[in-house]
Write a structure and sequence with these properties.
The complex is a heterodimer. Chain A is α/β, with parallel strands linked by helices. Chain A has helices at 8-17, 25-37, 50-61, 83-89, 111-123, 135-139, 143-155, 174-186, 205-222, 237-251, 267-281, and strands at 39-42, 75-78, 96-101, 128-132, 161-165, 191-193, 227-229, 263-265. Chain B has helices at residues 46-65, 68-84, 86-96, 100-121, 125-129, 160-173, 188-198, 214-223, 237-248, 266-269, and strands spanning 9-11, 27-31, 37-42, 131-132, 139-147, 150-154, 177-181, 207-210, 229-234, 253-258, 279-287. In chain B, strands 8-7-6-9-10 form a 5-stranded parallel β-sheet, with helices on both faces. In chain B, strands 1-3-2 form a 3-stranded mixed β-sheet, with helices on one face. Classes of the chains: A alpha/beta, B alpha/beta.
């Protein structure tokens, strides 16, 4: 596979240019609703409890109970142990269940264990699997192993869609981000995802742009549409709108759907709801107008 | 030699401990009583107000967590800084408010005294507003006042400095943070007060000062759901109605004074009942030994 290089200066400058659009009134309202519908509401903590997960599932279905016409979130993103419970809570809704797997967040377990975890999550009913690549192997230059592992995980996903987490915060350069993106796409990823959220920096505009361009080039070459999911570090509605502008101007309207673009976030939901509340009622919202987590 | 060209100041807002221009880029030209341009002040927008509330909300828990004694010290420090800037306050006030320097000096001195007074109340109001309640059981029962949260202040055109201080100091001394809109007709004193706050050990965000148009910002103050109370002095019954109607929507505490009240009356204006509207009473039951 040919390695593509990325001009970091140009990529960062282009990414920054997307933050300078003026989005007001109806377009802002539409953008906020779209961002909400693309949200993978995430909780990935050791201290997650069943009740916390139930609350998250309720929030994903109705982000603000008193505001009419708000979309539901795209998915909840949880650890494999919570997949069955999430499935049960979300029964009858169109919110999907995404499960991280493959020894998230490090990926440093024997392959057999990671594949078994993937199968367990898929068998429990996960609609989507968020796997991590083995950064150790990737950074050591062992691309073949990484590609083989992605293929093996994909084969164990059943009907679930596969998101491949590159953990760009550990990949050092845009060249490597591009290389990992191409590699994951070639290996069959349905989505490529920036980060686990456990490493700083998580998603940035620049890194996401590099990944969007990899998706674009793959589409132009093969006609297959791969999704992108920036995760971690996107906390405000304004940032989310910047990302949407970037998606639209890099990949076009076809990608402005929860099927092909997602935000992995938790705090973002509250800011989106607060901004939507402001747009719909004309009043600035208070922190007690949204849930605590 | 040519006459020196005066350097006119453009006063800025005081938000989060910083001095930004209005995000709207708008300013208001201030003229003295003889029609000469004196300075420009910012005309705050509703987004500036939103930023101010955000800053005040962020700063509130740490301000309330300081000891009452320390809050008193900081308010006293503000008074000290005002004393140092007294001449500047007198000059700017007398340039636009009728009554000349004599009146202005009286106002500035009263404003400094008011700040000292509420600096003093900081570690005393709990003894006056709180109480130990008799209960029919083996308990100590206390009621203690705690700060309400973030308070919006709307100052009148009458005694622009004294009234502003009289409105912000009572909520401030208990641990509330404040977003204040200064007098519309005489805004320079409000802007200079920002310079006092910035040099008084007040943590950023505890006091936020806006200058602008009352008609534009009043509805935003009342309808902003993240303001917990409003302390205002207004001249018209229409303004009073706007305040009370908007505030009813999220149950803000509202205390509206008449703009023309006697701001120099210390028996009234130094009373702890200026503090009382912006505290929440918490009652504690504690088992007693017998």
């Amino acid at each position: 596979m040919r390695a593509r290089t990325v001009d970091r200066i140009a990529a960062d400058a282009r990414a920054a240019s997307f933050t300078r659009r003026s989005i007001k009134k109806e377009s802002k309202l539409a953008g906020l609703k779209l961002a909400l519908s693309m949200l993978d509401l995430t909780t990935l903590e050791g201290k997650d409890t069943p009740e916390k997960l139930r609350a998250l599932c309720r929030k994903a279905q109705r982000p603000a109970e008193d505001l009419a016409d708000l979309p539901h979130c795209a998915a909840v993103c949880v650890y494999p142990t919570f997949v069955a419970l999430a499935k049960e809570e979300l029964q009858g809704s169109r919110v999907k269940v995404a499960s991280v797997a493959t020894a998230f967040p490090s990926g440093q377990s024997p392959l057999a264990v990671r594949l078994a975890e993937t199968r367990a999550a898929a068998d429990a009913g996960a609609d989507e699997i968020d796997m991590v690549i083995q950064r150790g192997a990737f950074l050591a230059g062992d691309y073949e192993t990484v590609a083989d592992e992605i293929e093996a995980v994909k084969a164990n996903c059943g009907s679930a869609r596969l998101k491949v987490i590159l953990e760009t915060g550990e990949l050092e350069t845009y060249d490597l981000v591009r290389r990992a993106s191409d590699l994951a796409i070639e290996a069959g990823a349905d989505f490529i995802k920036t980060s686990t959220g456990k490493v700083a920096p998580a998603a940035t505009m620049g890194v996401t742009l590099v990944m969007l361009e990899a998706v674009r080039d793959h589409f132009l070459a093969t006609g297959r549409k791969v999704g992108v999911k920036p995760a971690g570090g996107i906390r405000t509605a304004k940032q989310a709108l910047h990302y949407l502008v970037m998606v639209k101007e890099t990949l076009g309207d076809a990608w402005l759907t929860p099927d092909l673009f997602r935000f992995g976030a938790s705090a973002l939901a509250n800011d989106l709801v607060m901004q939507l509340r402001k747009e719909l009622t004309g009043r600035y919202a208070a922190s007690y107008d949204v849930t605590e987590s | 030699m040519a006459e020196r060209l005066a350097v006119l100041k453009t006063y800025k807002l005081y938000l989060k401990g910083e001095f930004p221009r209005s995000e709207s880029g708008r300013t208001i030209e201030i003229k003295d009583s003889r029609g000469r341009t004196l300075a420009h002040v910012c005309r705050a927008s509703k987004k500036d107000l939103r930023e101010a509330v955000r800053a005040a909300r962020e700063a509130q828990p740490a301000w309330a967590a300081r000891t009452a004694y320390n809050r008193g010290q900081i308010l006293y420090r503000m008074a000290e800084m005002m004393e140092g800037k007294a001449d500047e306050f007198v000059t700017t006030l007398s340039a636009t408010v009728p009554g000349g320097k004599t009146r202005a000096r009286k106002e500035v001195q009263a404003a400094i005294d008011r700040l000292v007074c509420f600096g003093g109340w900081a570690d005393k109001f709990t003894q006056v507003l709180g109480c130990a309640n008799p209960v029919a059981g083996p308990f100590h029962n206390f009621t203690i006042p705690e700060p309400t949260g973030v308070i919006g202040v709307i100052a009148p055109d009458q005694e622009p400095l004294l009234a502003l201080i009289s409105l912000i100091a009572p909520p401030l001394c208990t641990g509330n943070t404040v977003v204040a809109l200064g007098s519309e007709a005489h805004p320079i004193a409000t802007a200079v007060l920002g310079e006092v706050c910035a040099t008084s050990d007040l943590p950023g965000g505890v006091v936020n000062l806006l200058t602008g148009l009352r008609e534009e910002l009043l509805p935003v103050f009342t309808e902003h759901r993240d303001l917990d109370g409003l302390h205002a002095a207004v001249a018209s019954s229409q303004d009073r109605k706007t305040l009370e109607l908007g505030a009813a929507e999220n149950l803000k505490r509202v205390r509206v004074h008449t703009a023309t009240l006697d701001w120099y009356d210390e028996r009234d204006c130094h009373s702890p009942y200026w503090i009382e509207p912006f505290v929440e009473m918490k009652t504690l039951w504690h088992p007693s030994a017998t």
